[in-house]
Amino acid sequence: MARLALVATVIAVLSGCSASMATRPMSAAAQATELQANGAVFILQYEPVDEDSAKDIRSVLPAIVPILQRWGNFTTPVTIRIHPTHDALEAAVLHYNYPWLRAWARYDTIDLQSPRTWGILGSALPQVTEMLTHELTHCLMYQQSATENTWMYKRIPLWFREGMASVTAHQEYRRPHDEDVWRYLKAHPEKNPILDADGLYQAEPDIVYGAAHEAFAFLDGRYGDEAIIRLMQRMKTNGDFGPAFRTAIGLSEDVFAREYVRYVEWEGWRDAPDGKARAHPLALPPTQRTGGLHPVERPASL
Ligand SMILES: [Zn+2]
Predict the structure, then answer these.
(1) How far is the CA of 174 from the centre of ligand 1 (A)?
(2) Mean pLDDT of 7-28
(3) How many separate domains does the chain show?
(4) Residue 194 Cα, ligand 1 centroid: separation in angstroms?
(5) What are the start-end ranges of the E strands in 38-193?
(6) Mind listing the pLDDT tens digit for each residue in 173-188?
(7) How far is the CA of 289 from the centre of ligand 1 (A)?
(8) CA of 161 to the centre of ligand 1 (A)
C-alpha cells in the first residue's frame, strides 16, 4: 500500500500528454535557441529566468536522442517551451487545476514547467533526462505514426502512448508492476486498466500507468521493436491504430489486451526474473516459458 502511494505521488509529477491542439504563446521576453542532436532538431523557448534550465536541457538532449531512435527518426523539429511557473504551463496548454502536471506533448512541441520549479531544490539532470525522454517519445511516436494534420485522429490508445513513453524512459522503477496489476484485477474484476484506461486515468492514474507500462513491455517482448515500428508505419500510411495494430501485430488490440490480462491473472509474472528490462516469458522460446501461460503463436504476417 505504501509503495502504491509512493508510486502515485511520483507519477503525479510526470504526465500530461495530450492530443489537444490548444496552446498559447510564451511572452515577448522569451528567447529561442536551436540545437541539433544526432540529426534531430530542437528549438528551445524560455524566459530569461530559465537560462540555467535551458542549459540543462541542451546538455541532456544529445544523450536522449539515440535512446529515442530505437523507434525511428524525428521528421519535424520539436519546439520545447520552458514555462517559468506551473500556472504559466496550465495557461499555455489551456488545462487548469492539474497541480501534478509538469509537461504536455504534441506532434512537434513540448510544453514544460521549468525544472527549476519542480521541487524546493529544483530538479537534477537525471530527472530532466527522464522527463524529456518520456515526452519526446510521444512526439516521435506521433511523427512516426501520422502527419502534422492527422496525429490527433489516429485513435492511439492511452496504454500504448503512455506505455511506450514509460518503457523508453525506463520508468519501471516508479510504476506499479504486474503483481500490482494482478492485485488490482482481483479487487476490481469489472475493470480493465488497459482497455478502460481513459475512464480510469483521472481517478486511478497510478495503476493505469503501471498497466500501460507492463502491457507495452509485454507487447514489445513478444513482437519486438520491429513490429511496433511497423505498426506506426501502418498508421502513417493506412489509417487508425486499430486496423494498423491488427495488420502489424496479427491480432486485434482487444485480443492482445485480454492476453495481457490473462498473463497477469495466471501469474505468469511470478517466474519472471527481477528487473523490468527482462523480456516477458512469452518472448522466450516455448521450452523456456514458465508458469501457466497461454500459448501464443507469432502471427503469420511477421
Ligand atoms: Zn506521457
Answers:
(1) 14
(2) 49
(3) 2
(4) 15
(5) 40-46, 78-83, 103-105, 109-113
(6) 989 999 999 999 999 9
(7) 32
(8) 7
Q: Are residues 139 and 42 in the same domain?
A: yes
Give yes or no: residues 123 and 187 share one domain: no
Provide the residue type at 114 as one letter. S
What is the DSSP secondary structure assignment for residue 81, as one 8-state letter?
E
What is the CA(288)–ligand 1 centre distance, in A? 34
**With contact defined as beta carbons under 8 Å apart, do 57 and 44 qualify?**
yes
> How far, in Å, from the CA of 63 to the mean position of ligand 1?
19
The owner of cell 498473463 is 263
Burial class (CB in 10 A: 0-12, 13-18, 19+), 174: buried
Q: How far apart are CA 3 and CA 175, in angstroms?
A: 10
Give, to the nearest 10 degrees, the angle between helix 125-145 and helix 51-68. 50
The whole-angstrom separation of Cα 35 and Cα 291 is 49
112 C-alpha to center of ligand 1: Å?
Answer: 12
Lookup: cell for 101: 502536471
How many helices (H) and strands (E) in the chain? 10, 5
Residue 301 in any domain: the answer is no
From the CA of 189, how far away is ligand 1's center (Å)?
26
d(CA 224, CA 219) in angstroms, rounded, equals: 7
Q: How remote is the CA of residue 8 from the centroid of ligand 1, in Å? A: 14
Band (pLDDT 50/70/90 cuts) for residue 25 is low
- For residue 98, give its domain range: 17-149
For residue 1, tell me if it sits in a domain.
Answer: no
User: In angstroms, what is the span from residue 209 Cα to ligand 1's centroid?
Assistant: 9
Q: In this predicted model, what pLDDT tens digit does every residue of 259-301 receive, in sequence order?
A: 999 999 888 888 776 544 344 433 333 333 222 222 222 222 2
